[in-house]
């Protein structure tokens, strides 16, 4: 299995476990994550979710081969992609989510952090929102949430250029809340999750709900709907095809013919 789970004192530890592919996410992994999070939502024994990854990368984002082939089929059929189903469910997840990030956090590996409550990152952490570079648009309400956290100019700079950034920049943007050494990351993230799990659970959930209300769930859902429409159009675009072809051919993409 590419998703592992373990329970520790009210904490559900969810581990992305495909290190040989830098934990690149497939449709099957999204389905498994969605089922895991939905079970955690209903399970009174789960007070906090800790999201982490095996190996030296949090996630390289979507597995481009799996995502490209399946994504085009779903666009044609009108079927909602597993990633989009997970996004829908995560927007109003009522329990705290702690993330532990080392290595690369690409695409949805970064946008998912915008919906976590504590984000611990080691000095090896590297973040990337490369959607425009792939001929695509942001997802997971990133186009709405990131400007609220970072301000319009910083969000525009980050999303329009799509360049990788380090932990300190992620802290400036409001994505990372805790800095840990790589050796201490897992221990510190778990300690924080367990500390939160020991608190009064109804008060914790109510406080998370109040904080999230400032971000207006309906506005986030509207943003996701608009992003999904634009993302689907990007998936079948020539710009995206050039970006993916260049990636697999290990060359720089050439967008000069597009206007």
User: What's the total helix number?
Assistant: 11
Specify the structural class. Answer: alpha/beta
* Low-confidence spans: none
Let me know the largest β-sheet.
Answer: 6 strands, mixed
Strand order of the largest sheet: 1-2-3-4-6-9
Strand content: 15-25%
Overall morphology: globular
End-to-end separation in angstroms reads 44 Å
- Give the number of DSSP strands: 9
Helix content: 40-55%
Residue-averaged pLDDT: 95
Protein described:
- There is one protein chain.
- The protein has helices spanning 27-42, 64-77, 82-90, 108-111, 142-150, 152-161, 167-172, 185-197, 201-213, 217-235, 238-249; strands at residues 3-8, 11-16, 48-53, 97-101, 104-106, 118-122, 126-128, 165-166, 178-180.
- The protein has 259 residues and is an alpha/beta fold.
- A hairpin with a 2-residue loop joins strand 1 (3-8) and strand 2.
- 42% of the residues are buried.
- The N and C termini lie far apart (44 Å).
Summarize the structure.
The protein is of the alpha/beta class and 259 residues long.
């Amino acid at each position: 299995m590419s998703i592992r789970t373990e329970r520790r004192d009210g904490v559900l530890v969810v581990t992305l476990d495909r290190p040989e592919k830098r934990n690149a996410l497939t449709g099957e992994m999204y389905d498994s994550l969605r089922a895991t999070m939905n079970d955690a939502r209903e399970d009174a024994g789960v007070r906090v979710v800790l999201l982490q990854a095996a190996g030296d990368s949090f996630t390289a984002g979507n597995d481009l081969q799996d995502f490209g082939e399946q994504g085009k089929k779903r666009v044609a059929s009108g079927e909602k992609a597993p990633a989009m189903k997970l996004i829908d469910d995560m927007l109003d997840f009522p329990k705290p989510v702690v993330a532990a990030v080392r290595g690369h956090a690409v695409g949805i590996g970064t946008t998912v952090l915008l919906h976590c409550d504590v984000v611990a990152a080691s000095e090896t952490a590297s973040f990337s929102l490369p959607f425009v570079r792939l001929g695509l648009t942001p997802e997971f309400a990133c186009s709405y949430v990131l400007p609220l956290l970072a301000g319009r100019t910083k969000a525009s700079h980050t999303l329009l250029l799509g360049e990788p950034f380090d932990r300190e920049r992620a802290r400036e943007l409001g994505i990372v809340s805790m800095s840990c050494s790589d050796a201490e990351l897992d221990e510190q993230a778990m300690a924080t999750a367990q500390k939160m799990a020991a608190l009064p659970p109804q008060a914790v959930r109510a406080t998370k709900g109040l904080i999230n209300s400032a971000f207006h769930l309906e506005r986030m859902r509207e943003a996701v709907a608009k992003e999904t429409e634009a993302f689907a159009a990007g998936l079948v675009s020539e710009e995206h095809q050039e970006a993916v072809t260049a990636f697999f051919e290990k060359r720089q993409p050439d967008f000069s013919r597009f206007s």
